[in-house]
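Batch manifest, entry 17 of 40.
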Amino acid sequence: MELIEKTLEQEYIYKGKIINTRVDVAQLPNGRTAKREVVEHTGGVAVVALTDDFEVLLVKQFRYPYMEVIQEIPAGKLEKGEDPFDTGKRELKEETGATAEHYMDLGKFYPTPGYCGEIIHLYLAWGLSFGDQKLDEDEFLNVERVPLEKIADDILGGKIRDGKTQAAILKTLVLVQRGKIDIKK
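Output type: structure tokens
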């Protein structure tokens, strides 16, 4: 069976600074139609910054939708037309003050494929050097260095609930365990 749905109509409900929302009418594989609610987002980037001691730079910040402070890897929104790799380097510097000699593409992450088109590009960075943070005017966060193995335990224990952080950290851990990353280079 062909699984593709064809968009027949689109109606925008809201257009904002970060997201747009719309309701589509889609033709289903069986020929019937259904409404699809869609959140449009320009996408984002997240970076696992790994020190020579196998510590990861995590940021702690208040996330309004959950009304709590969460730990996550440095991340940020893509500007329209911006290269994800450039965004990753910028966000790492802005949020942690770190720059990296080496980067590895860890792939793309779809955080909520049921209703949102956001794609988060994941990177691993190592060979770090440090300078000053350059936080946005409305950005408040603390940076922590946490051993990679401890973060993995915290993910498995339910302490770290951010999806992009879970995916990127567990990918990094597997790469490290398999000897695919030489952070001393």
